[in-house]
Amino acid sequence: MKNKIEPQVTLVGAGPGDPDLLTIKGAKALAEANVVLYDALANEELLSFAPKKALKIFVGKRKGCHAYSQDEINQLIVDNALTYGNVVRLKGGDPFIFGRGSEEIEFVESFGIPTFVVPGISSSIAVPASQGISLTKRGVSESFWVITGTTSARKLSTDVALAAQSTATVVILMGMSKLDQIVALFQNESKGAMPVAIIQNGTTPEEKVGIGTIDTIQKVVAENKLSSPAIIVIGEVVGDSKKRAGFYKELKSNHNTVLVYGKE
Where is each Tetrapyrrole methylase domain found (predicted)? Predict the structure, then answer.
């Protein structure tokens, strides 16, 4: 007699890119998976934590290139859980930070399938930290905003304009295609000299960092072909970082200075 299939789905946060930043609980969940559905931002090295016999399905989405629509992904999760039992949905960063994790959980639970969530280290915090940028620092920044640069309507979030008026550190995900608009909003608030860091492929060997100010960051991006996936960090804490202190000291005397570097 065949064992009865007992479906369950676990959303696992894959972290910001470096496979070593997966949580121990996430690794344990992968080790018990019969099926893993993984995103484009989930490092494929993490699949080694799953059993060799486990089915691995790429369901990643990049700008202009979707392996599956979100509705198709939702259905794949359910179908595989009902067919194979234990499904791990591996999502970049944290599943609930602009990851549509709640939508997937709600869809799966509508079929009566048990669900679990393993939080991940969000790139919004870990990537700046890896560059020595403290999003909050006593005497420099009392808060930080984490904002999606592109809404479901493919427009710039209106929260960016509000954040530009504040003294908070601003972290923008999925905002590279809206960089010109972002810059204009901060310039409208007379913040042209505000330090900015753009971190592409953060915490990975392909990491590339561009730093400058609101007034110079477009030049950094254009000349060095910075692109998605990248995080935009705007605020005095960028200039206050010990790793960047010398650069910003020079920047104050030469407003057009820019810098880009990658990992060696």
Answer: 9-217
Q: Is 20 an active-site residue? A: no
Annotated active-site residue in 18, 91, 174, 240: 174
Residues of the chain under the 70 pLDDT cut: 1-3, 62-66, 241-264
Closest CA to 59 of 83, 75, 82, 46: 75
Hey, what domains does the chain have and what are their CATH numbers? 8-118 (3.40.1010.10), 123-247 (3.30.950.10)
Q: Give the residue among 175, 237, 186 at the shortest CA–CA distance from 216.
A: 186
Measured distance CA(109)–CA(112) in Å, rounded: 5
pTM of the model: 0.88
Q: Is 61 a catalytic residue?
A: yes
Q: Of 61, 137, 159, 215, which residue is the catalytic one?
A: 61
Query: Out of 18, 39, 94, 240, which one is annotated catalytic?
Result: 39
Q: What is the pLDDT of residues 185-223, one digit of tens each?
A: 999 999 999 999 999 999 999 999 999 999 999 999 998
